[in-house]
Amino acid sequence: MKDIYWAEKELVKSLPKMEKNATSKKLKTAISSHLEETKQHVSRLEDIFRSIGVKAKAEKCNAMAGLLKEGKSIMEETEAGAIRDAGIIAASQKVEHYEIATYGTLAAFAKVLDHKDALKLLLETLKEEKSCDEKLTSIADTNLNSKAE
């Protein structure tokens, strides 16, 4: 949990940069919306730490650091427009897939350890991460990828 806590906090810092670099209105809106959800994810993780009697502490997540670095490179190496937007979506979906895997695993652990409150919160976040991934796919499928071609 310490690494996903770090990851979510880093995303709160990174998402505004992604929104600023996106040109598609739908993508900007999706990023802005997910920023607000991500702030809630940080808060939920703090609630989960409390519910299991552990102090909330972030520990650098090398996987997320790498994904964020890749996303930053995409924004730096492309010009504003459909190609950059497609790159932002690709990088964002890698982040979402990492989060989906992490929250799914943590939910399984919470279930086995009978941490019912934690399980409920983890499943809520997992649902939101999956929804964000679906939104990104939808934006990419609505002509964005073909414009980037």
From TrEMBL:
It holds the Pfam family DUF892. InterPro entries: DUF892_YciF-like, Ferritin-like, Ferritin-like_SF, YciF. It comes from the Bacteria. PANTHER family: PROTEIN YCIF (PTHR30565). This is YciE/YciF family protein. It comes from Sphingobacterium cellulitidis.
